[in-house]
Amino acid sequence: MNGIEFQDVTKRYGSDASAPLAVKGISFAVPEGTLTTILGPSGCGKTTTLRMIAGLESPTSGRILIAGRDVTNRGPAERDVGMMFQSYALFPHMSVLDNVAYGLRMSGIPRVQASERARQSLANVGLVGLEARAPSELSGGQQQRVALARALVLEPAVLLFDEPLSNLDARLRREMREEIRALQQRLRLTVAYVTHDQSEALAVSDQIIVMDHGVIAQRGTPEELYERPATEFVAGFMGEAMLFDATVDAGGAVRLGPLQLSPRAAVAKGPAKVAVRPEAWLIQPADDSPLVGTVRKSAYLGSVREYLVDTELGPLFVVSRDLSIRSEPGERVGLGLGLHGVSVVPTGGPAGQRHE
Fold first, then answer.
1. Is the pTM of this model over 0.70?
2. 226-243: per-residue pLDDT in tens?
3. What is the pLDDT of residues 37-93, one digit of tens each?
4. How far apart are CA 282 and CA 304, in angstroms?
5. d(CA 118, CA 296)
6. Which residues of 16-55 are buried (b: 16+ CB within 10 A; e: fewer)?
7. Predicted confidence (pLDDT) per residue in 168-224, tens digit
8. Are 205 and 222 in contact (CB under 8 A)?
9. Phi (first) and psi of residue 47, to 5 degrees
10. How far apart are CA 74 and CA 80, in angstroms?
11. How would residue 348 be classed by pLDDT, with cut points 50, 70 and 90?
12. Domain ranges of the chain
């Protein structure tokens, strides 16, 4: 069964028929017990989509189903949905335990039973022993866990996350995304997760939906979107891929400047675009490579080295994990391409073209 299903859903703000659509006839499903991330830049329609799942916005047309029930015209309280907001929205005058038990108490659950369920929910997110503290006495990561426990304690059919990690530093973001993913898999939660952070989406998702200007640009597994982007927009948005003009010959080989590539899938003869991610470039001796460039910048980042290399293809951003190679500004280097991080993408079509 699908936990969430959108059937040709549109959303226009206001009653004027000429007003632009924020969401333009999208259809997708989130299978029960899986996590789907809705990803895209600001203004793409991802937050509007999440709010329609929650019942905080009503679609202009189309149908929304949750656990097989049509909830298109139902309010938030009738949808069996929990939502975790970016701001956490904890009550500062309540203890951690009372914050988590609040929704249960408002549902008429007796205090003793609500407190017991709240303690179990706090244990699920690793907060045993902090029940009596105020939110102000907790770190940002701990406050996040309280908000997560409060959403989980209601045992909703669907759990929604709206940019949940944006207020945390880099280390805490990594830790919390791992915890959210582990908890989702252990409890088999159905989750819709909104973010603009590509690495976050890749780390937590069973399915990623990339939105652009109110439509679905592409959907699929993290590997499919990263390795086989269907549009130039998706190729550029998923990571830091650079797009290059290329040609495909009659034999199916792709010519990218002096380089020749063998695509993993058949490509029609003619012009093409090649998306190359920074980690796909391989630094090698200049004498052994058809593509030669001059290092303009070099930076050591601990686990990788970053380079900016001027070539006949233009300036290339290169990320090398081979720390045994150290190239300095002014040095000539050769560049080859690895097997991963290189994609041939279709040319033409408007931005936001649908590929489903």
1. yes
2. 888 888 899 888 877 899
3. 999 998 899 999 999 999 999 999 999 999 999 999 999 988 989 888 777 788 999
4. 13
5. 57
6. eeeeebbbbbbebbbebebbbbbbbeeebbbbbbbbbbbb
7. 777 778 888 888 898 889 889 999 999 988 889 999 999 999 999 999 999 999 999
8. yes
9. -70, -40
10. 11
11. low
12. 2-227, 278-340
Residue 352 has pLDDT above 50, yes or no: no
Cα 56 off chain centre by? 22
Tally of CB atoms within 10 A around 330: 9
- What 3-state class would DSSP assign to 285? coil
* Count of residues making up the chain: 356
Q: Two tokens at 52?
A: 């329609």
For residue 17 the two structure tokens come to 């028929």
Q: DSSP readout, 102-118?
A: HHHHHTT--HHHHHHHH
Residue 211 · residue 41 · CB < 8 Å: no
Question: Residue 247 contacts by C-beta under 8 Å, 6 or more apart in sequence?
Answer: 254, 255, 270, 271, 272
Fold classification of 278-340 is OB fold (Dihydrolipoamide Acetyltransferase, E2P) (2.40.50)
Cβ–Cβ under 8 Å, residues 102 and 115? no
Q: What is the pLDDT of residue 236?
A: 83
**Helix, strand, coil tally for the chain in percent (to 5):** 25, 35, 40
Query: Can you tell me which residue has the tokens 């207020």?
Result: 167
Residue 93 structure tokens: 């005058």
Query: Rounded to an integer, what distance in angstroms lies between the CA atom of residue 277 and that of residue 274?
Result: 10
What are the beta bridge partners of residue 261?
254
Residue with tokens 């149908």: 63
**Domain 2-227 adopts which CATH fold?**
Rossmann fold (3.40.50)
- What six digits make up the tokens of 182? 């582990």
